[in-house]
Amino acid sequence: MATNRINRAEALNAAGIDTSRFVIDLPNGMNAGSSITIDFNNLNDPVVNAATGDSVDVSDVAESGYIKNNKLHRRWVMAQMFKMLNSGDYSKYLKKNYSYMYQFSMLEDELNVLKHMEARDPESFRARQTFFTKGVVFSLFSDYLDKTSSLCAQLKARGGNHIWVSGIGRVPSNKVKTRVLNPIKNMLRRVTVCNSYRELHNLVYNFNHQPHVKLIRKTSKCSDWVAAFKGSGAYYTLQNMILFHDVFIIDDNGNKLYGDDGMAFVDSKLDIYTGEGWRYLAMLKKVIADNNFHFGA
């Protein structure tokens, strides 16, 4: 894989593209000695062609840094999911190992991927956008506002002319609304008028990179974010198990489905399970049990 990555990087560099800021993965299935060539499309733009028939438009990569590769299936997500399930209590593991503020950093990364998929990779976008929707972003900021308001009320109840808010600093008690709470309310209003994942990503990115209240680690997470996190993790774990580990899934009529047929059944639930990620987690647990699938101690 390292040699293949170097080969593709060299091909892009030969086309005049600086690859130092890109991480490039070749399609699965390329063997040592496979050739890579640069052709030109009908717009006279250079295109990198691999032996598998997949291609990457160099000008597109240069503009966005995003490389479409439908043969990658987020296998690290499966490893993460198995680790959490193996802990014995998924919810407790999530609470213990991921802080409240992790929701925002994770969301920024997810929205960054989705903004590129929305514009350039509709096939992958359809499944992935099911989980972290505009509604989830709104719910997270709404939850954050409620818990920040509660925190500020507790701090003000102690008395004094000022309160200390983690992430913001010393705030006059009579300025809490304008300096702490109103900016979050403004974020909520801005979410409602976002019309694309690019706009949502920009909003969350700006929030994460500006001073904001840091709630303590053990603060309970937003339920809608948790549902999306569970659903996304379970979906991509199912995808890997069904396509690469020869497991079956039983459909609504009691039929055992393998491979592409199995994934077609999983995908048929995308619209039905929107906002109810726990249902994909339940599906995953059933597939594990039905197949007596072992994923380590």
Quick overview of this protein structure:
This protein is mainly alpha-helical. Helices cover 55% and strands 8% of the residues. The longest helix has 23 residues.
Basic shape? globular
Helix content: 40-55%
Would you tell me the structural class of the helices and strands? mainly alpha
In what order do the strands lie side by side in the largest sheet?
A: 1-2-3
Low-confidence stretches: 23-27, 38-46, 51-56
Q: Tell me the number of strands.
A: 7
Mean pLDDT: 84
Number of domains: 3
Oligomer category:
single chain
Number of helices: 12
Radius of gyration: 23 Å
The major beta sheet can be summarized as: 3 strands, antiparallel
- Give the SSE string: HEEEHHHHHHEEHHHEEHH
β-sheet strand percentage: 5-15%
List keywords for this structure.
297 residues; three-stranded antiparallel beta sheet; two-stranded antiparallel sheet; 8% strand
Structure write-up:
It is built from 12 helices and 7 strands. The longest helix has 23 residues, at 134-156. The chain has helices at 2-14, 58-64, 75-86, 90-97, 102-120, 122-128, 134-156, 176-192, 197-208, 223-244, 259-267, 277-290; strands at residues 36-40, 46-50, 55-57, 162-165, 169-172, 249-250, 256-257. The chain is 55% helix and 8% strand. By secondary structure, the protein is mainly alpha-helical. The protein has 3 domains: 2-64, no CATH class; 74-98 and 222-297, no CATH class; 99-220. Mean pLDDT is 84; it is low at 23-27, 38-46 and 51-56. The two termini are 29 Å apart. It has a 3-stranded antiparallel beta sheet. Strands 4-5 form a two-stranded antiparallel sheet. Strands 6-7 form a two-stranded antiparallel sheet.
